[in-house]
Design goal:
The protein is mostly helical and 336 residues long. Helix 2 packs across helix 12 and helix 4 runs antiparallel to helix 10.
């Protein structure tokens, strides 16, 4: 039997509604980023390639850190130490990459990523073994990482190769008009993470463990391994953010406040629609959220807002977003 035109229209509408329920928040966050970019372009005298490259390149560490936090939160945890890991990875890279050739700096970068994954996996293991809440253990790891960073590089300094700087910024000096290396890197990373979390058993186990540990256990999923895995991957992404930070600045700075970076990562996760209760969210949505969190400060500055008041406004916006997501999550659970 051939479907009637009315039935086809109804089916199309139902399809759009399903799409909006699944991806509406992600679409909205990307749309918000575009609106903010358009608004920012009206606030400054000239908006061109340099400004676009500056936003993309300088926002890259925020994006990587947000992705790492999102993976951990989806698995049912939260890591307050990712900001400290970023700082530690950044100063370690700056210390050992200074004066080295491009190939050597790549080898050092891979070693730092591996070390960060192992160290943060250890944090996940401690949480599971001790049964102490994630927030307590990871708060301690924040201070440990920050202290190790100061020991590694007491004063701002160090460096890296020109090729390594170009890899993250499209420029040998870290300042230029070419955002494409960063765009390509972010795209490849996000696609790889999205495919891993949606198509593989280990990736899907993150959602299962974050949604319901008991059901996950009955399904044969070992929640302990899942949590350790999520912390390992999150630590690697925090280190990747630190490497990007070193490439952008051309040096390391252990006095950077890791706690502020951690709070931004949590805010980006919430803005990206990842439920802090675990089991819900996407790595794709936290990409624009990371850029937005970085982008708010330049917008408020261009509007002539005092830096102190700008922090208050940012905090207020974060509270509003968290409240909205909390209400939506409550409604979802009530319907189910």
């Amino acid at each position: 039997m051939t479907a009637t035109p009315q039935a086809l229209v109804t089916a199309t509408q139902a399809g759009w509604r399903r799409w909006l329920r699944r991806h509406g928040w992600t679409f909205g966050v990307w749309l918000l980023l575009l609106v903010l970019l358009a608004y920012y372009a009206t606030l400054i005298p000239r908006f061109g390639a340099f400004q676009v490259a500056s936003i993309v390149n300088n926002g890259t560490p925020f994006v990587f850190l947000a992705i790492g936090q999102a993976i951990i939160v989806i698995a049912g945890g939260i890591d307050l130490g990712v900001g400290g890991m970023l700082v530690l990875a950044s100063v370690t890279a700056a210390r050992f990459m200074e004066g080295q050739a491009f190939v050597t700096t790549l080898v050092i970068a891979v070693a730092i990523l591996a070390a960060a994954a192992v160290i943060n996996a250890g944090v996940g293991w401690i949480i599971n073994t001790s049964k102490v809440p994630d927030i307590v253990i990871t708060l301690g790891s924040l201070y440990v990482f920050q202290g190790l960073a100061l020991y590694m590089l007491p004063n701002p300094g160090g460096g890296t190769s020109k090729g390594f700087r170009w890899l993250f910024t499209g420029s040998d000096t870290g300042i230029g008009t070419n955002p494409w290396p960063a765009v390509v890197m972010i795209t490849l990373v996000v696609v790889a993470v999205a495919l891993w979390m949606a198509k593989t058993r280990s990736g899907l186990s993150l959602y299962a463990a974050g949604s319901n540990k008991t059901a996950a256990y009955l399904s044969g999923i070992k929640a302990t391994r899942v949590k350790i895995l999520s912390y390992a991957v999150g630590g690697a992404f925090a280190a990747l953010a630190g490497l990007a930070n070193t490439a952008i600045a051309g040096r390391g700075n252990a006095t950077t406040v890791g706690g502020n970076l951690t709070l931004n990562s949590v805010a980006a996760v919430v803005l990206g629609g990842v439920a802090l209760t675990g089991g819900i969210g996407s790595a794709i949505a936290v990409v624009p959220a990371g850029f937005i969190l970085f982008f708010l400060s330049p917008i408020l500055t261009a509007m002539g807002v005092d830096p102190s008041n700008a922090q208050v406004i940012q905090g207020f916006l974060i509270v509003v977003v968290m409240s909205v997501t909390g209400v939506l999550e409550w409604r979802r659970r009530r319907r189910s």
